[in-house]
Amino acid sequence: MISEDCDKKLLILGMGSEILMDDGVGSRLANKLKEENLPPGFHVETSNIGGLELLEIIKDYDQLIILDGMRGGGDVGDLYFLSPENFRETLHLSTKHDASFLNALKVGEHVGYNLPGSINIVGIEVEEDRCFGECFSDNLEERIDYIYDEIKELVFTKKYS
Amino acid sequence: MKQITIDPITRLEGHGKIEIFLKDSGEVENVYFQVPELRGFEKFCEGRPVEELSQIVTKICGVCPGCHHMASGKAADAVYGVEPPPTAKKLRELFYMAHFVHSHIAHFYALAAPDFVVGPDADPAKRNVLGVIEKVGVEIGTEVLKQRRIAQEIQALLGGHQTHVVMNIPGGVRKGLTKEERDDILKKGEGFVEFSKFSLKLFNDVVLQNKDYVDLILNGPYSLTLHSMGLVDENNKVNFYEGKVRVVDTVGKEHCKYAAADYRDFVEERVETWSYLKFPYLKKIGWKGFVDGQDSGVYHATPLSRLNAADGMATPLAQVEYEKMYETLGGKPVHATLAMHWARLIELLYSSERLVELASDPDITGSELRTPIINVPDEGVGIVEAQRGTLTHHYWTDNKGIVKKANIIVGTTNNNAAICMSLKKAAQGLIKKGVDVSDGILNMIEMAFRAYDPCFSCATHRLPGEMPLQVNFRDKDGKIIRTVKRD
Known about the structure:
Chain A is α/β, with parallel strands linked by helices. In chain A, 29% of the residues lie in helices and 20% in strands. Chain B has a five-stranded antiparallel β-sheet, with helices on one face.
């Protein structure tokens, strides 16, 4: 699902609030990626809000990988590999304040924004996203290194299962 | 008794559930609005230096981080007993006007306009911002995104980041504005004014020229007769950043006016067993239940309330629109809930004009950015108008400025009781025996609270999720007898 040609610009966008425990898993993973020796053309950003706001962040990139918490019904730490074609909502991609993620993409297309040709979403099953705290829940913390390694492999080796 | 559930609420920031209970006759018995809880905010703040809070609170909600940053910054000023210099206050307000422009554009075009431009009964797949753009044209859609982007850019320039704002420090701000930056903002502000005028014209052409819509605003099941709250300046004109909180009664007479530090003398909060949100009410009147009227302690704090509570707008073009609105709707105060959309556009124009005023002020490029702190920290309250209502941050610290306790009343919390009552009134007006509870009907019920532009993320200090919508009709035994789904 990731373009083989990664010489084009790639944006890794981590979503969520870092003061709401598991809610911030996407942002935290993204911030950790920033510390890696990223190849030219790779960029990492974070955001708390989806919908139309995302258009301004993602436009003009060739490829996009979004990292976000999710409630998919699996075990804490499970990963869901999604795309607009097999889309499921994560915690922050859509905002009820303006638009759903898919509608935001359509709006972007309508107004002529140069949106990424390849959009991949990694949803991470979370447990506790309603309690203020700067740490993960125990169950997510146990698997976070594994999750990070999977995402690193996704980003750097372009392998996707 | 039958139960109709609307869960979650579409086109609304935050996660909530509406339960509508029907009598066996098919009439609405009662309506409950329930919001899940966020936990531990006060505990989270304890032990932190108070000056950190203005950055921390920007992470409560991705929609209105600037509001929390401003209120928190003012509370920290108060904790240290320090008044920022004029340049710093004007820079804060300049940022804040851009924040209002950004937010009010989003609400009108993405949340309000779908109901009026596309239609309240339209296909849900079209009744959204995409449907609005298809109706009004790509050019306008492009302009909506452009103006929002420009407002975000101004916020990023002044605030240090467009969402995780870092500009405020106790006693002032971190950085000033160069003349070149000021000139750029001034030009952009003039663009905001033109776009605001266009948006008001669109509202006039689409809504005010449509008799059915005007009838819906004036005579639909959406009016509540309540006291109105808003921040006003020394001339009792609307101000979002500074002033005193003024409350007028249901006939427009001043009920009270107070400085931030005195809010607890005028507003009290109560808890209901069926909701995690608090229900503030006017202390001097007291809690009389979920009722409206002159003798009710329930009030609202919304764009319409702000205009009701003030004697006018402080900028000329907005003042003209203010007068037009009240003339059209039969005088002050206005209690028609859907008129909030009109008031919001007037505020958009005011924010734009005020931004131009501030950018034109020679002080704005001044170099005095902070008043030195010499007092021992203690306790402080900061109040601003958030887009959704009066926002209060209250902190208690030790003598080193370490937080011992924190309390927040966010804009939407002020309106919690009013939202419940608006929902009930709309449901009672629209759901009748023999009337099929269609998606259009449910949407018209939701219109009752969308007008408030509620942000339940802030109100429960949490962030949103998205779920498919399902309405369950239950018989008196609680058994589901019918399900309506909306994808």
